[in-house]
């Protein structure tokens, strides 16, 4: 029998609700329970695939090819489980299903109403996730903050679930306690207001996760307890921390896991000391030698804050690999457009131990990225290309080594004669019909690895599964020309004979993947390719400058 823990936010957004939800999962898992997590996003988009990552953050891709919110990535990284389409709910998905059912006369002539039919669909989806994962605990994160019009139907679903099975449903409110500079004191009033909003939705929180710059003191806990009708032991301190991987350790300082279990009348199956994460946390705090990685992108002008969200899985994968190699990650954002305007600036790349060109869409900044890749190839700077970063490495090699001066991708030169990267025929049809949503080559596909290659050395396996999100591919008509001049196609998809990995020899590390390895990296299990890339980058430290 599954238990359900709803997590909703109060006061303001952006306070780490996803990480908090993932952390609760990690804690319960460490106590011997099976855990899964569901993200509910209130927007009408059916999935995150059609959203701009600068506005909404990274589009995370699950093994089954669901394009979802970045929080699902956090869940996977924390609980170390592969999630699926069942772990992701949006208003769009819910309405789409209800309307389809209505059109099929499945409501038997009834008037289909927003309440109860929409919350009922939400509940059915949450229960399906529980059933399919056979989880003891299902964590459900409700996007947005309480008091918003948008997510009220999801709160309604939570209320109805609690009504039907009060002993199996728990409600956690995560709030923020500001310390206004002029007052210099932590204020609880916004939290009290947030609880009122929740009460208006018919829900009383069982626990309050109190985010703030510093830990909560006892007077503050008592005050929240009195005003919000929550035991002071259930007001959990959630101060700012340097690394997100410390969050579960911090919650456990207030015994959050045991408090939750007690409310359900359960006991820990084992002690759950989070030993591996304590070790990781120690490494994070103590590593001294840094490795400097540059990420070349077009999103420079949007500010660091947005970038961190748009590329979260890449950043986390770099960090995991750095910690494994006992290195301190130092990540810098480099604007490709700057290199287009002023190629002399390319020499700054020599100050970096490794360069990444991550995934992307559209032609802006492309030529600058190609210039940066050329510089890395010629100057033996470790290079790792992810999806678009691989396609551009192939274009660069075709132009400057194979003499195909017009080499390009059909994405940027639809009528190009030397498109070494071409649109996949099935994708071409979809694009012409404007069928954009959820139609890319998505999710896990098999890849065979050639022996005696960098890829084989990293994976130590001849067949792997990796996650994809793209419409374009290496054009097989040019494959032999590329191979003849030394590009090694070290990973191939067996069903469609598509190039999945391309690499170069006689270079410390030069490799690109058509897939997105970053989605499979986990904090204590770095992805093999990131691990090898960082290893090569650590070796090159100081050699070039
Ligand atoms: N725009 C490229 C494609 O669609 C690369 C996609 C990506 O980097 N995710 O194939």
From TrEMBL:
Residues 307-535 form the Glutamine amidotransferase domain. L-glutamine binds at residues 360, 388-391, 411, 471. The active site is at residues 387, 516, 518. GO terms for molecular function: ATP binding; CTP synthase activity; glutaminase activity; identical protein binding; metal ion binding. It is an enzyme of class 6 (ligase). Residues 1-266 are annotated as: Amidoligase domain. GO terms for biological process: 'de novo' CTP biosynthetic process; pyrimidine nucleobase biosynthetic process. Its EC number is 6.3.4.2. CDD domains: CTPS_N (cd03113), GATase1_CTP_Synthase (cd01746). Keywords: ATP-binding, Glutamine amidotransferase, Ligase, Magnesium, Metal-binding, Nucleotide-binding, Pyrimidine biosynthesis. UTP binds at residues 13, 187-192, 223. CTP binds at residues 13, 187-192, 223. It catalyses: UTP + L-glutamine + ATP + H2O = CTP + L-glutamate + ADP + phosphate + 2 H(+); UTP + NH4(+) + ATP = CTP + ADP + phosphate + 2 H(+); L-glutamine + H2O = L-glutamate + NH4(+). ATP binds at residues 14-19, 71, 241. Allosterically activated by GTP, when glutamine is the substrate; GTP has no effect on the reaction when ammonia is the substrate. The allosteric effector GTP functions by stabilizing the protein conformation that binds the tetrahedral intermediate(s) formed during glutamine hydrolysis. Inhibited by the product CTP, via allosteric rather than competitive inhibition. Belongs to the CTP synthase family. Homotetramer. This is CTP synthase. It comes from Candidatus Nealsonbacteria bacterium RIFCSPHIGHO2_01_FULL_43_31.
């Amino acid at each position: 029998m599954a238990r359900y823990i709803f997590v909703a936010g109060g006061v303001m957004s952006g306070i780490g609700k996803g990480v908090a939800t993932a952390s609760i999962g990690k804690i319960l898992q460490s106590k011997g329970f099976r855990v899964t997590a569901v993200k509910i996003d209130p927007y009408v988009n059916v999935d995150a695939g059609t959203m701009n990552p600068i506005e909404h953050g990274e589009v995370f891709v699950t093994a089954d090819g669901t394009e979802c919110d970045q929080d699902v990535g956090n869940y996977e990284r924390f609980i170390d489980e592969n999630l699926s389409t069942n772990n992701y709910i949006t208003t769009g998905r819910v309405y789409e299903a209800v309307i389809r059912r209505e059109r099929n006369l499945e409501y038997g002539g009834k008037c289909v109403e927003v309440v109860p039919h929409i919350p009922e669909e939400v509940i059915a989806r949450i229960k399906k996730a529980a059933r399919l994962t056979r989880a003891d605990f299902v964590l459900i994160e409700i996007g947005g903050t309480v008091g918003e019009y948008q997510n009220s139907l999801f709160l309604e679903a939570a209320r109805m679930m609690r009504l039907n099975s009060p002993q199996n449903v728990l409600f956690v409110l995560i709030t923020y306690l500001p310390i206004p500079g002029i007052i210099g004191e932590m204020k609880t009033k916004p939290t009290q207001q947030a609880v009122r909003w929740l009460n208006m939705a018919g829900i009383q929180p069982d626990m309050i996760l109190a985010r703030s710059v510093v830990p909560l003191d006892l007077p503050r806990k008592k005050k929240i307890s009195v005003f919000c009708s929550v035991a002071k032991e259930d007001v959990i301190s959630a101060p700012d921390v340097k690394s997100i991987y410390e969050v579960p350790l911090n919650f456990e300082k207030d015994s959050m896991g045991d408090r939750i279990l007690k409310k359900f009348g359960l006991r820990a199956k084992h002690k759950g000391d989070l030993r591996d994460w304590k070790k990781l946390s120690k490494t994070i705090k103590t590593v001294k030698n840094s490795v400097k990685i540059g990420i070349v992108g077009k999103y420079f002008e949007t500010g660091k804050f947005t970038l961190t969200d748009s590329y979260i899985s890449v950043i986390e994968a770099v960090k995991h690999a750095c910690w494994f190699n006992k290195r301190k990650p130092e990540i810098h954002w480099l604007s490709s457009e700057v290199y287009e305007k002023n190629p002399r600036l390319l020499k700054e790349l020599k100050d970096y131990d490794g360069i990444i060109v991550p995934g992307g869409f559209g032609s802006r900044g492309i030529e600058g990225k190609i210039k940066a890749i050329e510089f890395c190839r010629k100057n033996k700077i470790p290079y790792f290309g992810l999806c678009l970063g691989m396609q551009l490495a192939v274009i660069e090699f075709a132009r400057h080594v194979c003499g195909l001066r017009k080499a390009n991708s059909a994405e940027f030169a639809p009528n190009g004669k030397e498109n070494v990267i071409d649109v996949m025929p099935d994708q071409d049809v979809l694009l012409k019909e404007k069928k954009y949503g959820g139609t890319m080559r998505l999710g896990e596909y098999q890849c065979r690895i050639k022996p005696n290659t960098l890829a084989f050395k990293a994976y130590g396996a001849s067949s792997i599964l990796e996650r994809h999100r793209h419409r374009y591919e290496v054009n097989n008509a040019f494959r032999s020309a590329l191979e003849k001049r030394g590009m090694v196609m070290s990973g191939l998809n067996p069903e469609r004979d598509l190039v999945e990995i391309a690499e170069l020899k006689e270079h410390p590390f030069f490799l690109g993947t058509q897939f997105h390895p970053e989605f499979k990296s986990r904090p204590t299990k770095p992805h093999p390719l990131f691990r090898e890339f960082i290893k090569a980058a650590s070796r090159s430290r100081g050699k070039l400058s």
